[in-house]
Structure formats: C-alpha cells, structure tokens
Amino acid sequence: MSVQAEIEKYLQPILKEHELELVELNLTRGKKSRVQVYVWKQDGVLIDLCTKVSRQLADVLDRKDLIPGAYRLEVSSPGLDRPLKTKRDFEQRMGEKIKIERKVNDKTQRIRGLIHQIGDTSVTLQADDEDYEVVPFSEIILAKIIIEI
C-alpha cells in the first residue's frame, strides 16, 4: 500500500466523525514533505473544523511515522469553484450552472449549462436556449460551478 493510500485509510474515520468528504489528497515528497487535504461538507467547512481535522491527522501521522522527517500538513476547503471530478460531485450540484471543457477529436470544446441529468457515464446539461448536451465523463477535462455575483 502506498503512503498516500495509508494516509487516506487513517484520514477516512476522522472525516466521517466530522461528516466531511474527501475531495482530494496530495502528498509531495522532498526535503520537507507536504500533505494537502481538501475536504467538503454540504453546508460549508469553517476554519476551526479544518484545524480539528489537521490536529487529529497530524497525531496519527506522527504516531504511525508514515512520513519520515519534517512535513507540512494543510487541511482546507477547495472553495466554491472547486473542480467537479466525480459522479457524486455532479449529483451534489444538480440544477446548478457549470462550465465544462471537454476533449473531442483532439479539440477542446467549452460548454455552459445547468446540470439537468446524470447517468452512469455522462452528464446532461441544459443550455440557456433549452438545448440539451450529453457529455461523457471520459471526455471532461475540467468542470466547475459558475459563480454568479
């Protein structure tokens, strides 16, 4: 099992305790390694919750000695405009306006619309002109919520 997979194994119960979902976990090795944890919760993630998770995870990392030497641990929320990566990400944003960059025949296509429907292998967007566009997840390079101010 990789070190990153071990960190995630120990992180999951901590996240469950605080009703958080893991968005992304990055481990960068070097003179001073860095562990970046991005968490999400439907009603938002406050800094004090990130601090609690950070302390709990640091205790585990130190006790298990998963990262030799000095390391920096960062726990944060990815923000409102975080990329949508999984089917679940799209499901949680049903009805919201998003932008997608997709690769079709070696060309990049940009699409905007409301998330209308989510299938096993694709998302369907409804454009402003009521047209529907089915986008296979396999073609998506980047998908983000459009934040309108």
Short description:
The protein has 149 residues and is an alpha+beta fold.
For the structure shown, list the relevant keywords.
149 residues; alpha+beta; five-stranded antiparallel sheet; three-stranded mixed sheet; 39% strand; elongated
Description:
The chain has 149 residues and is α+β, with helices and mostly antiparallel strands. It has helices at 3-17, 47-64, 87-92, and strands at residues 21-28, 33-40, 71-76, 97-104, 107-118, 122-126, 132-136, 140-145. The strands form 2 sheets. The protein has a 5-stranded antiparallel β-sheet with strand order 7-6-5-4-8. The chain has a 3-stranded mixed β-sheet with strand order 1-2-3. Helix 2 links the parallel strand 2 (33-40) and strand 3 (71-76). The radius of gyration is 18 Å and the shape is elongated. It starts with a helix and ends with a strand.
- Shape, please? elongated
Approximately what portion of the residues adopt beta-strand conformation?
35-45%
Which assembly state applies to the chains in this document? single chain
Residue share in helix: 25-40%
Mean of the pLDDT scores?
90
Task: Kindly report how far apart the N and C termini lie.
Answer: 44 Å
Adjacency order of strands in the biggest sheet: 7-6-5-4-8
Radius of gyration: 18 Å
| Number of helical stretches of at least 4 residues | 3
Specify the structural class.
alpha+beta
The strand count comes to 8
Largest sheet: 5 strands, antiparallel
What are the secondary-structure elements, in order, as H or E?
HEEHEHEEEEE
The unreliable regions are none
